[in-house]
């Protein structure tokens, strides 16, 4: 007998610990809004939940932190009012920070994502995922 509810289980091997925190925050946000699914919107909301912009975000009249800088750098000269960014500039900035260089302590094998879906329209959901 098929369940009337959908179940989706996702396993990520090789995730950075910060991603675990992000997904937990997204799950909390989904629950707070009465949802039992974590959606992309919940992940976006978790990404911007901190009122302080990330240190790498451009600041008015300040030098721009580059991807070559240490990730955990704390520099007072990089604090201040943030620069508004159009979407295309934000995408470029994120692409710049998503460098090809490996970080120290990465897992020995590449990251993978696997999933299982069950429910009345599971076949359609699986087909949509596999098409992308």
UniProtKB/TrEMBL annotation:
- Write the protein's name: Uncharacterized protein
Q: Which organism is it from?
A: Nocardia uniformis
Entry superkingdom: Bacteria
């Amino acid at each position: 007998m098929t369940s009337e509810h959908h179940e989706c289980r996702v396993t990520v091997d090789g995730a950075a610990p910060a991603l675990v925190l992000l997904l937990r925050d997204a799950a909390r946000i989904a629950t707070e809004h009465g949802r039992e699914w974590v959606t992309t919107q919940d992940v976006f909301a978790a990404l911007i939940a901190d009122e302080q912009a990330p240190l790498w975000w451009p600041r008015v009249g300040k030098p721009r932190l580059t991807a070559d800088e240490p990730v955990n750098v704390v520099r007072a000269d990089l604090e201040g009012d943030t620069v508004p960014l159009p979407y295309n500039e934000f995408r470029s900035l994120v692409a710049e920070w998503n460098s090809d260089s490996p970080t120290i302590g990465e897992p020995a094998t590449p990251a993978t994502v696997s999933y299982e879906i069950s429910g009345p329209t599971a076949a359609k959901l699986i087909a949509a995922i596999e098409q992308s």
